[in-house]
Amino acid sequence: MERIDVHLGQRSYPIHIGSGLLQNGDGLIRELLPPRVLLISNEVVAPLYLESATALLSRCGCQIDTLVLPDGERYKTFDTLNLIFTKALELGLGRDCSFVALGGGVIGDMVGYAAASYQRGVQFCQFPTTLLAQVDSSVGGKTAVNHPLGKNMIGAFHQPQLVLMDMDTLSTLPAREFAAGMAEVIKYGILWDGDFFAWLEQHQAELKALQVDALSYAIGRCCQIKAEVVAEDETERGVRALLNLGHTFGHAIEAEQGYGNWLHGEAVATGIVLAAQLAQQLGWLEQVQVDRISALISAFDLPLNPPQEMGFEQFMPHMRRDKKALQGIVRLILPTAIGTTEVVSSVTEDQLRQLFDTL
Ligand SMILES: NC(=O)c1ccc[n+]([C@@H]2O[C@H](COP(=O)([O-])OP(=O)(O)OC[C@H]3O[C@@H](n4cnc5c(N)ncnc54)[C@H](O)[C@@H]3O)[C@@H](O)[C@H]2O)c1
Ligand SMILES: O=C(O)C(=O)C[C@@H](O)[C@H](O)[C@H](O)COP(=O)(O)O
Ligand SMILES: [Zn+2]
């Protein structure tokens, strides 16, 4: 069992990582929970883990109600959010309740945003059940829903009270979803920690086999990096933007292809490769580093290339709307080495056209 703290003054919170925490984690979370809880999951995760999560929360002394939402990225919408608000109002929940998100990043982002806005803000907790949610989305307080014109366009920064991640839940995760989570894991190595990237290169087999020591090291390292970055820059005024490596391209793919057709992690994987290729084109990254990045992404069966039908004309409208853009100028996160990245606003549209033309 590992505990990592996100240091944010009064909004600080613990991340608990371990095996069996949905069965026996009550001692870790009891003191942080209010008496009234709305436990929210989806149609896929609920049959697997709702019962143990309910039992855990009830051993903590909470009065629990549950809500099961439809599954998938295409339901990360205002309409689904409204199901949460309606349920909470029907139950008569007040500001002293907590919402608990049991599921992957879609559930976590939606429940977090519902908590940020219900009666102008209630507490929430993250019980992440995908690799992607454990290494990334459950930590840091970015919450959102999608808009047809852009990913995560409507949202808020709202930190959870606690994050409880039971690594055992990964045993039921489909292989494609595990790989999608690995895209964000690889991202941390490139943007922050070259030694971690090298460790990932050396431990591919153990990770694919869900070997517990390798998995817990990888999840822990990602959470440490994210906690450090978020503590330094909670609302993305500076260094936090680095966590967006691959996302300007990736979000364009997700929106253009229709939410859910490309998984978030798949789109980010391709986005990271595009960022590396662009950095190489600009003379900032050596080809050998691009090759290492592509090789590791490919080793986890993640896509290296965007959809064939997507070129400059299809990417650009999405990229100009990216949340990092300032006065219509695209800002990109580009690697300068494995382990070091920079926020760059000097890339011209001609340079981007050249990137897509050479694919
Ligand atoms: N807030 C953030 O900082 C942040 C960071 C990264 C990604 N995200 C968001 O997270 C979302 C992607 O999250 P995701 O990859 O977890 O997708 P997801 O939430 O859609 O989960 C993937 C699939 O796995 C199922 N599932 C979840 N846990 C399972 C389990 N243990 N066993 C079997 N099936 C399980 C889900 O029901 C779903 O079908 C995107 O919307 C992305 O924008 C947010
Ligand atoms: O936590 C962050 O900051 C991130 O950028 C993490 C990303 O992996 C995540 O996908 C995030 O939701 C993207 O944020 P957005 O602001 O580009 O929507
Ligand atoms: Zn992401």
TrEMBL record:
Enzyme Commission number(s) of this protein: 4.2.3.4
Chief site of localization: cytoplasm
InterPro entries attached to this UniProt entry: Dehydroquinate_synthase, DHQ_synth_AroB, DHQ_synth_fam, DHQS/DOIS_N, DHQS_C
Cellular location(s): Cytoplasm
Note describing how the cofactor binds: Binds 1 divalent metal cation per subunit. Can use either Co(2+) or Zn(2+).
GO molecular function terms attached to this record: 3-dehydroquinate synthase activity; metal ion binding; nucleotide binding
3-dehydroquinate synthase C-terminal domain mapped to chain residues: 181-325
Essential cofactor(s): NAD(+); Co(2+); Zn(2+)
Binding sites annotated in the UniProt record for NAD(+): 71-76, 105-109, 129-130, 142, 151, 169-172
Residues reported in the UniProt entry to bind Zn(2+): E184, H247, H264
A GO cellular-component term linked to this record: cytoplasm
Keywords noted in UniProt: Amino-acid biosynthesis, Aromatic amino acid biosynthesis, Cobalt, Cytoplasm, Lyase, Metal-binding, NAD, Nucleotide-binding, Zinc
Enzyme class, spelled out: lyase
Pathway involvement of the protein, from the record: Metabolic intermediate biosynthesis; chorismate biosynthesis; chorismate from D-erythrose 4-phosphate and phosphoenolpyruvate: step 2/7
Swiss-Prot/TrEMBL catalytic activity: 7-phospho-2-dehydro-3-deoxy-D-arabino-heptonate = 3-dehydroquinate + phosphate
Any one biological process term the GO annotation gives: aromatic amino acid family biosynthetic process
Domain of life: Bacteria
Positions of the 3-dehydroquinate synthase N-terminal domain: 67-179
Reported function: Catalyzes the conversion of 3-deoxy-D-arabino-heptulosonate 7-phosphate (DAHP) to dehydroquinate (DHQ).
NCBIfam families linked to this entry: aroB
Family: Belongs to the sugar phosphate cyclases superfamily. Dehydroquinate synthase family.
Protein name, UniProt field: 3-dehydroquinate synthase
Taxonomy of the source species: Bacteria, Pseudomonadati, Pseudomonadota, Gammaproteobacteria, Alteromonadales
